[in-house]
Specification:
The protein is of the alpha/beta class. Helix content is 22%, strand content 12%.
Length: 295
């Protein structure tokens, strides 16, 4: 049975597909000294997803206290044909069938009045100028932001109230993680034995995860209703005009990926930088993915 996750819950082990490697272990993904942000978006061709994918690429160097994985409702081969392996500064988890979304009770909303924000209106309206056409009567998938520690321990679960109620960039994630992690019980961040690895999503999520043998200690900010995330808030009125701001034109994900460099350790002062080289041709053509809700 689907259930909303809360801080202190334990996500069972499962296997997932990336655009380049099938059947990866979720618990192996969580190994290391940094917890993982799981940000649940829509399919990779949706304008809202593309907006956040690009914002996270531009700000990837800001996230130091945690790692990032974006979950998208897209088939692996759709992404691998357009984006070469190693081009993204963070991982993508493909769940085209929406198994995780259903199991974690990620909601959708048909009323734009309830789920739209000014930012969402601006993104969607700009995408319409570029050819995006929402399907008539479609339900709008709301986001989910998780911070997960070793062996599947949920450190934070934030179910978005609007389409843009999620971290706006990696700097926002870093600020959230830096504030939250010191307040959590030490045992939540300690490595624990992994559960047996399931063969597939369906096997892993055929039933709700069993309750832990011992009750988990409550964290000071365990309630996602009281912990301040600083994310978006709903519209007060749907017909409120979006703020008019200068448009820079559509951003090119390929150009962002081409220019992305992993943060390096501070170096000694160097000679004045040389003149920048001419812009390189985009390495990724997102136009091939198209807009819409297809997988």
């Amino acid at each position: 049975m689907a259930k909303r996750l809360r801080a202190g819950d334990v996500i069972p082990e499962f296997r997932f597909d990336t655009p380049y490697h099938p059947q990866q272990s979720f618990y192996e993904l969580l190994e290391g000294d940094k917890p993982v942000f799981l940000v649940f978006l829509r399919n990779f061709g949706h304008p809202l997803t593309r907006n956040y994918i690009m914002e996270y690429i531009k700000s990837a160097g800001s996230l130091r206290s945690a790692r990032l994985v974006c979950v998208v409702q897209t088939k692996p081969q759709t992404i691998s044909k357009a984006i070469p392996e190693g081009a993204m500064p963070y991982e993508l988890m493909c769940d085209a069938e929406g198994v995780l979304y259903r199991f974690f009770a990620v909601p959708s909303e048909k009323s734009r009045m309830k789920c739209f924000s000014l930012k969402a209106m601006k993104i969607i309206n700009e995408a319409k100028k570029q050819g995006f056409r929402p399907q008539a009567g479609e339900a709008w998938q709301l986001p989910l932001t998780l911070l997960v520690g070793p062996a599947g321990r949920v450190l934070l679960a934030h179910y978005g109230a609007t389409l843009t109620d999620l971290p706006e960039d990696c700097a926002a994630m870093e600020e959230l993680a830096a504030d939250l992690l010191p307040t959590l019980p030490a045992e939540w961040l300690a490595a624990a034995p992994a559960a047996p690895v399931a063969d597939s999503f369906s096997a892993a999520f055929g039933a709700a995860p069993a309750a832990p043998a011992k009750p988990a200690p409550a964290a000071p900010q365990a309630d996602d209703e009281t912990f301040e995330t600083g994310f978006d808030t709903p519209l007060e009125a749907f017909d409120a005009p979006a703020p008019q701001q200068p448009e820079d034109g559509p951003q090119d994900l390929g150009a962002l990926l081409e220019g992305f460099e992993a943060p390096a350790a501070p170096a000694a002062p160097a000679a004045p930088a040389a003149q920048p080289e001419a812009p390189k041709a985009p390495a990724v053509d997102l136009a091939a993915l198209g807009f819409g809700t297809g997988n």
